[in-house]
Amino acid sequence: MDSNTLNAKPVLRLALFINMLSVGTLMMVMPLGPDLVRDIGLKGEHIGYISGGATFGSAIIGFFLAPVLDRYDRRAALTLFLLLRSVLIALCGLATEPKQLLLIFIAAGCFSGPLSGLIMASVLDVTNVAERGRAMAFVASGFSLAAIIIVPASLMLAQWMGWQMTFFFFGGMGVILAVAVRIYMPSLVPQASAMTSPTMRSAGLSKMIGSTPFVLAMAMMGLTLFGHFLLVPNLSAYFQFNLDFPRNEISYLYLLGGVMSILAMRYSGRMMDKGSGQPVLFGLSVIVAMVVYYGFISDSTDKWVYLIFMILMASSSARSAVLAAFTSRVPPPQYRAAFMTYQSTVSNLAAGSAGIVSSIYLVSGSANQLVGLDKLATMTIISALAVPLLVCWFIPSLKQSQASQQVPG
User: Using one digit for the tens of pLDDT, what is the confidence trace for 123-167?
Assistant: First the structure.
C-alpha cells in the first residue's frame, strides 16, 4: 500500500473533513449545554457527562476493535463506522430527555476511536515517511477547523432553528461524507495482513505491542494529552474570572488561536519532513513550558491573554503534530489501523483522566475565580519537558527495532 502515493490527495482531504466533523460534533455539545438545560431538563453539572462519556466510550470500543481493524479494506470499514456514527448523531436531535441524549451520544462516540484509527492508518498508507510531517499536520488541522467552523456554526443553527437542527445537520453531513468516502477513496487493503494467518497476525501484533517503541509512543502521546487537557477545559473560565478577560471577546480569542494553530502545524510539518523533527519538538516543548509558566504560575499582574492563548494553542498543536509524525513510524503496514486505534484510545483516556483530575482538584473562589490552576500548570510543564526526553530514547529504539525486523516505517 505504500505505493499508493498518487491517491494521497483524496485520502488526505477526506481524512481532514472526517477529523473536523468528528472532533466538531464532540466539541459542540459543551457550548450547547445551556440550550439542553432549558429544553430537555439536563442538569448543568451533568453537561460534562455527555462529552466525557463519549470520550471514554470511544477509548473502550477502540481498544477491543483495534486487533481486527487491519483485516478489512480501509474504505469499507471507514464507510461503515462513519455512517453508523452519523446516523446516531442525527438521532440525538430526537431526544426528549437527558438520559436519551446521553445514551445516544455516547453510542455515537463509541465509533470515534476505530474511526480515528482507520483515518490515520489510511493517511500512512498513502504517504511516504518523508512526507508524513506535512500529512499529519494537514489532517490534525481538522481540530482547529472544528473550533473555527463547526462550533460557531452549531451555535448559530441552535439559535436560529433549535438545538435539534444542529444534530440533524451535522449527522446529515456525516452521511454525505460517508458516501464521499465510498466513491472517492481508493481501496486500501493491507496486503501483508491479508496473506498472514490469524495466528501469525496475532503473534505479530502482540510483538509490536510489547516492543519498546510502541510503549514509548503511547507514553509520549498520553503524557502530551494529559498535560494539555489539565488546562484546556478551564481556559475560558480562568481568563474571564481570574484575569478579567471580556466574555464578548472569547469567540475572537478561540478564532485567532485556531488560525495560529493551523499555521504552526503547517510550518512544523515541513520542518519534520526536512529532518528537523527532534529539535523542533524540543523547541516547541520549551515554548509550551514557558508560556504555561507565564500565563498560569507567574505573579505578573498584567498578563496578555491573547498572547498566552495563541502561543499555547499554536505550540501545543504543532508539538502534537510532530509527535504524531514520529510515532507513525512504529507500526508496519499490516498493523497500522491497530496502532493508530490504540494511540487514539490512550489519547482519549489521557484527556478524559486529565479532565477528571482538574475537576476534582480545582475549586472556585468567592468571585468564581479558579483556585489551584497553578499546581496543574506545574504538572503540564513537567509533562511537556518529559516528552522530548523520551524522544531521545524513542528514536534509537525505533531504529534498532526496524533494523532487526527489516520493515520500512
Answer: 888 888 778 788 888 888 887 788 778 878 887 888 888 888 999
Mean pLDDT of 277-302: 91
Burial (CB count within 10 angstroms: exposed 0-12, middle 13-18, buried 19+), residue 97: exposed
| Sequence ranges of the domains in the chain | 4-405
Residue 6's CB is within 10 A of a number of other CB atoms, namely: 9
Reduced to 3 states (helix: H, G, I; strand: E, B; else coil), residue 370 is strand
Number of Cβ atoms within 10 Å of the Cβ of 214: 22
d(CA 109, CA 297) in angstroms, rounded, equals 35
372: left (phi over 0), alpha (psi -120 to 50) or beta: left
Placement of cell 483515518 in the chain: 119
Type of residue numbered 344: S
CA distances to 93, 128, 350, 360 from 163, in Å: 7, 43, 30, 30
Topology classification of domain 4-405: Growth Hormone; Chain: A; (1.20.1250)
Q: Which residues contact 159 (CB under 8 A, 6 or more apart)?
A: none
Report the distance separating Cα 255 and Cα 276, nearest Å. Answer: 29
pLDDT digits (tens, 9 = 90+) for 245-268: 887 777 788 888 888 888 888 888
C-alpha cell at 244: 478579567
- The structure's pTM equals 0.81
